[in-house]
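help with this:

***
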Amino acid sequence: MKLSQIVNIVNGKIENFKEDFNVKGLKSIETATKEDLTFTKDPKKLEKTSAGAILTPYFVESLDIPQIVVDKPDIAFYKLIEVFYPEEKKSGYISPKAVIGNNVDIDSTTFIDDFVVVKDNVKIGKNTIIYPFTYIGENTQIGDNCIVYPSVVIYKNTVIGNNVIIHSGAVIAADGFGYYQEGKERKKIKHVGKVIIEDDVEIGANTTIDRALVDETVIKKGTKIDNLVMIGHNCKIGENTVLVSQVGIAGSSKIGNNVILAGQVGVADHITITDNVIVTAKSGVGSDITESGIYGSSINAIEWKRWKRVMSIIYKLPEIIKKLKVE
């Protein structure tokens, strides 16, 4: 793609433009060659680059390459990735190697790949792509423009909206983790609820979302879920919320809108977290968070011998406090 075309796509202003050339790829500042385009958000930190051109928030006089000036060069770069590396178009196909149940409604524009299993009474909307080895249980509904990557398992009675992306290995609507004690025996509690995933949600690889006991586990629209996240039964996850890798949310918790739970955050059962909250990595949430803000209780790694000294003092704190009170 010509550099002049890229200027028009990002609606930028070009500086230091000497001659047009064909941009062959998009690369980082460190790896870009003279045939590539890169970007920087902070030109003050830019020492040099071998790129043929750069997206920048303002003109850098010391940099002798073409510079496309835009307000948000990172966002312009991300959008260009979609232009340079478009997804492969797939539509209007059901593989003869797929297993399709009875009373199934699959739109004529949808793509069903090899070894997909679609059980009875499933409905799939327009322009959706289902990749190989995916299982879709009875009475499930999947909307328009969805992508379900290989080896996803979607249990029965699940409802999935439009523009949803589900990555490989995800399990949607498995039984919630629940048992009751009868005598000396733990007996399984049967879960007969469902999972509802609204529009524009993305679910990472090997993430699990459990079905509700009798009601609904809900992921609201626009929420983005990383790989290896666990969401327990009956949970309600709000709109535009971000759950980073290895987050675990126990059953019947309610997470608000625009919340960010960083990596390895754990949320106890029946917890409510209000809107616009950030919880920092490795923190545990054991009580409700009722006010917006940033919360965290993680402990950074320190040198081991120093930590042992700290711990020895922590164990003595009750005695120290008692002594201070007496004095």
Observations:
- The chain is about 15% helix and 30% strand.
- The mean pLDDT is 95.
